Amino acid sequence: MAAASISSPSPTSSSALKHAFSDRVPIRSILCLPDGGASLSGQRVRVGGWVKTGRKQGSGSFAFLEVSDGTCPANLQVIVDASVADLGSLVQTGTCVQLEGTLKEPPEGTKQKIELRVEEVLHVGPVDPAKYPLPKTKLTLEFLRDVVHLRPKTNTISAIARIRNALAYATHTFFQNHGFLYIHTPIITTSDCEGAGEMFQVTTLISEADRLEKELVKNPPPSESEVEAARLVVKEKGEAVAQLKAAKASKTDITEAVAVLSKAKESFSKLEERFKQKPGIPQKDGKIDYGVDFFARQAFLTVSGQLQVETFACAVSSVYTFGPTFRAENSHTSRHLAEFWMVEPEIAFADLKDDMNCAEAYVKFLCKWLLDNCFDDMEFMAKNYDKGCVDRLRMVASTPFERVSYTEAVDILIEAVKGGKQFENKVEWGIDLASEHERFLTEVKYQKPVIVYNYPKGIKAFYMRLNDDNKTVAAMDVLVPKVGELIGGSQREERYENIRDRILEMGLPTDPYEWYLDLRRYGTVKHSGFGLGFERMILFATGMDNIRDVIPFPRYPGRADL
Prior knowledge:
- By secondary structure, this protein is of the alpha+beta class.
- It is built from 17 helices and 18 strands.
- The strands form four sheets. Strands 6-12-13-18-17-16-15-14 form an eight-stranded mixed beta sheet, sandwiched between helices.
- β1 and β2 form a beta hairpin.
- α5 packs across α10 (352-373).
- It starts with a helix and ends in a 20-residue tail after the last helix.
- The relative contact order is 0.10.
């Protein structure tokens, strides 16, 4: 009865705000309340975080600290008296602190709604200010790429991390709410989805060659004469067995002789095998012998999970994969990474129109999700990087996307050129639209997202469905302001003869795609899908200029830190 009478903590009590698995109250739980935390005045709390700025006041009698734990863009103002702790070790930027005290309303006229008066310092992780790479001064994003292990401590990178997390959560929420199954597709693959050949190879041949080379130095291979001597021993022991059998010797003598022969054969076999070992990569018929590689064939890091996830779409209907993909493109632009993440849904019994509807709904959902769940971080990005990013999200979330065919889009661009618009890339039917063309359509012509569909077959992948004109395929790209192409998708070619012919037409070998052709041989179905470049979505949302700043650990030519 006594236990039943205990009332549960109120939503604004410190115990209710406490982290479920850590002895602290997240700073977000305090500062992101509608009143900025003022209603918690008088509550005793324990917080932990890192000092953004610190300064002694009152002739060193107390110090102000701005503490962040990364849960929100705002810092908690903390006041520590010199009688509580050594202020010199607390005020240095980057210092980790765990503090306990009472929340108080600050004096009127200050921007803070609440501050913490510290009564006990439970932990200090000190920083040597002379060596700390992240001083209080404003740091460039280029500089931060050289200290990738420390850059999450900065306001910008932590805000992007929270936005990235929100978009990932929203992605799963969207597809799960619409009945899609999340499928884990392989990172190691033997198929080239794009047919471009710019893939990272996965092999153990090099490490095995290095190991063998060291082994041969340490334990040199036998000479030809040693091998021949061992062969003669085998011959001699074999003849001895034959003679014993011919002489009808005892079973014991024959058994012993056979055992000696077996040992001689085993010794010769090992010696011959070592004699054949040669340093370097194994070759066969003048080419690298992948038959002795780990997977007994060439293998690569995937450029897309689409082909594999189609196997499940053709069995369980609506699926998606969301994971890392890789491309060995030696590009140093602000739009390219060697490792990036893709969201790739696939829908059975769906045509190109269904595909476009899904893509539009998904992008709108992501934009609305950020506005509803990550607004404080978006405000930070608007204040510091792109004043229009919040308005852009609102526009996309609430505006129907324009839909134009590729032919119509090219005609619009040609008319623009006739009107005096200059593009670096020539405009004509058959080109792959460049970023400048895509941004003209979204930022100048329509001033909103545009879906371009029915592209020339010559610039698209083999798996896209051939249209009746035999010139175009049922492909579509979602173009957005700031970024250009955000999504690429298509209705897949479900007709066996057509896709087989396309593979041959593009000069691709059929053997690696026999399993893919099986999907058309056995129970083929109309299906469609698309891929969204996750980092491109973050660029679009935040207004950041360089894709290397919106992924936690950027990989690009010459750099793979950590």
